[in-house]
Amino acid sequence: AFDEPAAEAVLDRLFAEYTVETTLREVLLPYLHELGSRWADGEVGVAAEHFASNLLRARLASLARGWGQGHGPCAVLACPPGEPHDLPLLAFGVVLHRSGWRVVYLGADTPLADLGRTVEEIGPDTVVLAAVDAQRFQQAMPDLGALSREVPLRLAGAGATPAVADPIGATILAGDPVTEAQRLAPHT
Questions:
Q1: How many Cα atoms sit within 13 Å of 133 on the Cβ side?
Q2: Which of 30, 82, 126, 130 counts the highest number of beta carbons within 10 A?
């Protein structure tokens, strides 16, 4: 209903009653999946999908404040070129930081040349790339192969398949973003 105050009130209640991880895993990520399906089926218009996504993006971004601080290992998070769906990656980053990691978040549609320069500049412990379509990864295989020789590379999202990951030596994060972030112990 485009009612931001009501939506914010629901989010406030969820985050007050449950942990961030539970709220993300059990409510927000399933909601985003359902919203995407409803949009694809024509049940929800672009405006409603954008409204909800941007509202959730703002809340997740508020949870991400300070995630580059700390003394834990460092992860660079991005989506490959052409991939606009970064909310699950943002949720992953929030939980990863809460698990002790420092996070450098590059977000959606990241040029691989810029990602490579970032890796050279900061020397992260891992890079996580997320895409809903395997073609986003397939179009970048040579660059991803070079990247995986420089830093441990993890691929996430529905586009992360063995056909993409195996030839370049990447690891697939096959579970939901919250569980996968929790599995990456800070010493990994």
A1: 11
A2: 130
Considering only CA atoms, which of 73, 104, 77 is closest in space to residue 173?
77
Chain centroid offset of residue 139 CA: 20
If you write DSSP's letter for every residue of 100-129 in order, what string do you get? T-EEEEEESS--HHHHHHHHHHH--SEEEE
pTM to 2 decimal places = 0.93
Burial, 159: exposed, middle or buried (Cβ in 10 Å; 0-12, 13-18, 19+)? buried
- Residue in the block written with tokens 């929790």: 182
Token pair in block for residue 105? 């978040």
Distance CA 151, CA 110 (A): 17
How far apart (Å, rounded) are the C-alpha atoms in residues 151 and 125? 7
| CA 145, 147, 152, 154 torsion-angle sign | negative
